[in-house]
Amino acid sequence: MKGIKNETKDMIPIYVNIGIIKHVILTRKLFWLRGDHLLLHNKSYVSLVSGEVIAGTGMWIGIVGNLKFLQQLIDSDFLKGLLLMVGLFVSLFFSPKAGEWIDRFSKKNVLLYATIIRCLAPTCMLVAIQYNSVTWMILSSIFVQLAATFYQPAAQASIPLLVPSNELLRANGFYVNASTLARIGGTAIGGILIGFMQLWTLYSITLVCYFILILLILPIRIGSQKSVGKAGKPDKMPFREVFSLLKSDRTLTLGLTNALVVSYFVGGSNLLVINFSEMLQTPGLMGWIYTAEGITALLAGVMVKRFFGKRNLVLSSTLFLFILAFSQISMAFSYHIVPLMLSYTVFGYCFGTVVPLTATIFQKQLPADARGRFFSFKTMLDRTWFLLSLAGTGLFLDLIGINYYLLLMGAVSLLVGIFSLQYSKRHALDVRQVTENTKAKMA
Which residues touch 440 (CB under 8 Å, ≥6 apart)? Predict the structure, then answer.
C-alpha cells in the first residue's frame, strides 16, 4: 500500500481530490460492464463529449482567471458581478437567430464556427492583461457567451442524430457528466494554477483547450436535417414556431416546467453555499459541498438509463421534484456538517437525473428540424432564469434568512410536483426511450 501511495504522489498533484479519481475509475467500470462500449465505438459522439470536457475545463479555468483579473482592478463585488453579466445579457438577443441557423444549416458548421468565436475570448484577455483594460475583458465575456449561445443548443440538437434512439438517455447522461466534470475539474485546476502561474499562462491554456475542440469537431459526422424549399435553398424557420410546439405538445411544457424548477435552485446555490459556510463557520465547507454534489450528479448520469430506460420519462422527472423538495427542506434543518452534506448529496443525484431525463423528453418529442430552435429557446430561458434566480435568492436571503428561504423553496417544489403529477395523469402523458418515434398520448 505504501508503494502505491508513493507512486500516486509522484503522478498526481497533491491538490487533486481523490474522490474524483475514484469516481472516474468506477465510471469506467460501469461503462464497460453495462455494454456502454457501443457509445465508445461511436467516434462522433465520443468526439463531442471529449470536446465538452476539454473545452469546458478550459472555459472554467478562464473564468477563474477573469475573477482574479477583476479582483486586481475593481474593489466593488457588485460592480464585478455586473461586468461578468454583460456577456450574458448580450447573448440573449442572439438566441432566436441561433436557433434558426442551427435548424437551417449544418450543425457541424455551427459547432465549428462557434468554437472559432470562442477562441477570440482568451485572445481578448491577453490584450486586457497587457493594458489592464476592463473593456477588453467585457469583450472577452461577450465572445464566450455568444459562442455558448450557438454551441450548446447545436450540441444538444446533434445528439439524437449521432446515437441510436435506444441509447439516447444514456448519451444525454454522459453529456451532462462531461459538463459537470469540466466544471469541477476546471474550477479546481484554475484555483490551483492561479496560485503560482501568471494570468497570461491560464488564458494560454484556455486557448489551447479551444483549439483541441476544433480538432475534435472536424471528424464529427452529423446527419443533415435541413428543410429545403422549392428553389433548392434552405427554408427560413421562424423562431416563433417554438411557441406553437409548446402549445401542441403538453409533454414539452411539462418537461420545461420540471427542468426550470431544478435550474432555479441551481442558479442561487452559490449564495446558499456561502451562507452555509459562514453559518457553520467552516471555510473549507464550500469545497466539500461542491465535491459531494458533483460526484453524486456524475453517478446519477451514469446510472440514469439503468433505472429509467424503460420507464415513463415524464412521470420519472416529475417524481424527482418531490425528492428535490425533500433535499431543500432537509437543508433548512441542517445545523451540522453531516446532515448538510447528505442533503446536498440528494440534491446532486436529483440534478444529475432530471437534466438527462428532460433532455431526452425534448429530443424524443421534437421534430429533427425544430430541435435547434427549441434548445436555443431553452438556453435563453435558462440564462434569464439564472439571473432571476440569483437576484431572487439574494433578496430572500436578506429578507427572511436561509432557513425560511429553503422551506419556501421546498414548498414551491412540492406544489409544482403535485400539479405536474396530476397534470401528467389527467392527460396520460407518456414518453419512453424504448420505442422509436413514439409521441406522448395527449387527451
Answer: 249, 250, 251, 314, 365, 429, 430, 431
Number of helices (H), then strands (E), belonging to the chain: the values are 18, 0
Cα–Cα distance measured from residue 216 to residue 229, given in angstroms and rounded to the nearest whole number: 32
Question: Would you state the torsion angle of the CA atoms of residues 315, 320, 321, 326, taken in this order, to the nearest 10 degrees?
Answer: 140
Predicted TM-score (pTM) of this structure: 0.75
In sequence order, the 6+-apart residues with CB closer than 8 A to the CB of 181 are: 53, 56, 294, 298
Q: Where in the chain is the domain with CATH 1.20.1250.20?
A: 35-223, 238-437
CATH number belonging to the domain at 35-223, selected among 1.10.10.10, 1.20.1250.20, 3.40.50.720, 1.25.40.10: 1.20.1250.20
Q: How far is CA 259 from the centre of its chain?
A: 12
Could you read off the pLDDT of 60-104 as tens digits, one per residue? 898 888 878 887 887 766 677 678 778 888 888 888 888 888 888
Instruction: Output DSSP code: residue 440.
Output: P
Q: Which CATH architecture has domain 238-437?
A: Up-down Bundle (1.20)
Instruction: Give the span between the Cα atoms of 189 and 185, in whole angstroms.
Output: 6
Residues 10-26, mean pLDDT to the nearest whole number: 41
Q: What distances in angstroms separate CA 369 from CA 5, 123, 345, one per listed residue?
A: 53, 34, 38
Residue 419: CB partners within 8 Å, gap ≥ 6? none
Phi and psi angles of residue 281, each rounded to the nearest 5 degrees, phi first: 55, 50
Give phi and psi for 228, each to the nearest 5.
-105, 135
Taking CB atoms within 8 Å and a gap of at least 24, the contacts of 360-363 are 360/168, 360/169, 360/172, 360/313, 360/431, 360/433, 361/251, 361/252, 361/255, 361/313, 361/314, 361/317, 361/431, 362/252, 362/255, 363/156, 363/159, 363/160, 363/168, 363/172
Contact in structure between 152 and 379 (CB atoms under 8 Å):
yes
Per-state percent for the chain, helix, strand, coil, to nearest 5:
80, 0, 20
Which residues neighbour 402 within 8 Å (Cβ) at sequence distance 6 or greater? 272, 275, 276, 279, 332
Q: How far apart are CA 265 and CA 230, in angstroms?
A: 47
Percent with pLDDT over 70 in the chain: 84
Using alpha carbons only, give the angle 255, 259, 264 rounded to the nearest 5 degrees.
150
Q: What per-residue confidence (pLDDT) applies to 334? A: 84
Could you tell me the three cell numbers for 288? 466539500
